[in-house]
Fold this protein.
Amino acid sequence: MISAMGIQAGQSKGKSPVQLLIDWLNQRLERTIFMGLKFTLPKKFVSPLGFLGFLTFSVFALLGISGALLMLYYSPIVIFNTATGAVTSPYDSVSTINNSLAFGQALRNIHYHASNAMVLLAVAHMFYQYFSGRYKLRYEVLWVTGIIIGILTIIEAYTGYDLLLNVRGMLAINIGRALARSTPIMGPEAFRLMAGTGLADLILRFYAVHVFIFPMIMILIMMVHFPRYLVLDIPVVSMVAGIIMVIGGLFPVELGAKFIPTAEAGITMPEWYLTGMYAIIRTGIDKFLAGAVIPMIFVVVFLIVPFLDTSRKLSVRERPFYTALGIAGLAQVALTTVWGFRANDLFSGLDSIPQLEINPYIFFGTVIFVGAAAYAGTYLWFKATAPPPGTRPTRKQFPIYKMTTNEWRAVVIALLGFQILFDIYSSQAFLQGFKNVLLLQIGVGLIAFGTLVHLYRIGADSK
Amino acid sequence: MASYSPSPRGIRSKEHRYVSACLTCKDLANCGSNGLRTEFDGAIPSRKPKMSRRDFLKVMGGASAILAAAPFAVAKQYLIPPVPTSFQPVLIAKKQDVPVNQSLIFWFPFTTDPTYTNMLIHLPPDLASQAGKEFVAFNRTCIHLQCLVSFLSSSEIIGCPCHGSIYRPTDGWPIAGPAAEIGRYLPNVQLKIDGDNIYAVNINLDDIGYGNTSGPE
């Protein structure tokens, strides 16, 4: 049978049947798209900053799995019974998933925290690539497609948290469709495109966009965005998944209050990646300017950077203008994001409706000041810390502790014991209905697994 | 049996590993049945035999992966949600709603699938005396290929429109057609009659479309 598979006699000598099957499969996969990507499994620890993109994709995959499972029970149906006042809403199905189904709350938790992690990792990935100059030298296509995927990621997350149709989701829907309507000339069409004939249509459209249309577009763009060489670092990937679950256990996702049209609604914040835009809108300036033009200025600046910065210099110090520009942008994003959560006065908490309106002069004055200060500060910092000419920057070597064979064996066995213990704990938590504890313990188990795989690769390589 | 020659690849060769594993056994005589063993009786290598580093790592890594994946096994309960086995009684009709030799179709216990429709039959006097009760209720899902059966008052039978299965209205036993070949009772709905009110109390969901061997009561 093996010879029939076309492996030459010389190659098959001394190999196990399993290895022969893997070889056979590998040779046939040469004909497929999968072999176009070269995966590197690092043999030692490498900085995750270098493969934040692949981590973002891993979380995207986690979102795909958890989201597909949530689709089994989610129902995007909105019916307002005007006679009885009863509201049938997707909230009811989410509530069933959350409260009645085994592992349902854990899945929601994973899906929610993974969405936050994906936005966070995508933003971190973008800024890391920006500061390390990885948008130039024939990386322009990767950079531009990356920016587009980033925007799609945020819109995807936005459509996702609206699908609950809780008070917070409804607030975001109201703002989103009002912004769509404020588009000059084609506003009414943009509104109808988004909302159809009303909320029931809108939820159905958001659902289609969230579970199929946007993920498909993202995957298509990712095919262009993926570089040929990818780092598949199993320890870090499993640790990221573990951390998402630990955070899910510690800060379980809330169901929020069901949206009832006839009931009063309190102040609710949008998700953290939209509070920046929310703060701009709260200044009361023109809707289209606040919701589209100002965010687009930010995006366009980042989009055109590779076509302006065409030097062959990569280090942050050698291109101070673009470094300072990036830091100024980062500072402004941080400021507006924080301000979205705060009162009209940045230094006090938000607890009443009159505190919502922010004075535009104070707001934009502060934003411009912070940007300029960050810009100037970067230059000053470079000047103050400039190395004397002619010297090469030295890299700090972190002290690495080398374990003896017996030590790492002990650690590996201890980690395995730890995993067994946490498997027992988590099964107990599952049986007793401690949903958050369950997820926390699964996450800790995954982190232990990641650590163990890390020790595996050290142990397999060292003498 | 071929004589042993040390493998050029040394410690990682299969034979050597096997022998090493054997020599760690305290009782050599009961240590597997491979013919190689006898040739090595007494020929203990000077190297202290133990599990190689790679084997240790493979075992530990594999075990760790299994342990990391194990807690997700509970997701099975999410994919296949348990179905309740008993239900709240539901008022389905008043006695006067169903005249003699007539039937009434009602949903129980769910309204999510046509297989949850059932028929309440007010038996004519002759059948009622056979069955020992006036009202009976059966699930409408034929045990042959799950078409929906009906009570035919003209011929006093339960008939399936798809392949002609015929059931007895007294106890739901198939008397003709493909269902008779299968030979299982149509699942019955337990009723509770309280004055004029008729309540559906319970049905065994696993029997729907499949039938049972015990019949009503």
